[in-house]
Write a structure and sequence with these properties.
Blueprint (H helix, E strand, L loop, with lengths): L1 H20 L3 H17 L1 H8 L5 H12 L5 H12 L6 H15 L2 E8 L5 H15 L2 E8 L6 E6 L2 E6 H12 L2
Parallel strand pairs: 1-2
Antiparallel strand pairs: 1-3, 3-4
Helix pairs in contact: 1-6, 2-6, 4-5
């Protein structure tokens, strides 16, 4: 796993540096996120790109036909390099690393807000504002659902946890009642 993280970080940083030099930081981020989403929704394509039994030439041809003109050349070339080196599966981690670097540069901390039911967009925005003030960061939260927390929310940002869930309150109450 440590090697995979190193690959993701190394390639992500290289892609980010090249993107900044060419003034394409935001375009590559947008295209990269779309690429990640496509490869998650099309697992057979991802399997094809990772298949060691398929020649590099065949993979290159397929990448050309599907992606050339649909996304920036830097990502197409990255796919060529990753498939040639048997690391196509790293594309997700590389794009995550790239996105993390862009967010850090923009002063944004990404986090998760876990709730028992889906939150409305305005609720998430309100909590993002409150969390941003509390942590003195510009926070962007993604809502995840976990019915086991019963009610309230748990917020995870930058290695910090804010637990305002009903489950946590009940667990704390149970702890004080134990003799």
């Amino acid at each position: 796993m440590a090697e995979l993280m190193t690959v993701d970080v190394t390639y992500g940083q290289a892609l980010y540096s090249a993107a900044k030099e060419n003034g394409k930081r935001d375009q590559i981020l947008e295209d990269g996120l779309q690429l990640s989403e496509l490869l998650k929704t099309e697992p057979k394509l991802m399997e094809f790109l990772k298949d060691p039994g398929v020649s590099a030439a065949e993979k290159h041809d397929t990448i050309e036909k599907i992606f050339r003109g649909q996304m920036c050349d830097e990502l197409v070339n990255l796919l060529f390099v990753l498939t040639d080196r048997g690391r196509a599966g790293n594309i997700f981690g590389i794009i995550r690393q790239y996105e993390k670097m862009a967010m850090e540069e923009d002063g944004i901390a990404r986090g998760r807000i876990i709730s028992a039911a889906p939150l409305k967009e305005e609720q998430i925005k309100d909590i993002e504002e409150q969390t941003s003030k509390l942590l003195d960061l510009n926070v962007s939260l993604e809502n995840e659902i976990d019915k086991s927390i019963i009610g309230g929310v748990k917020i995870f940002v930058d290695g910090r946890v804010m637990d305002a869930s009903l489950r946590k309150g009940l667990d704390d109450l149970a702890g004080t009642l134990e003799i």
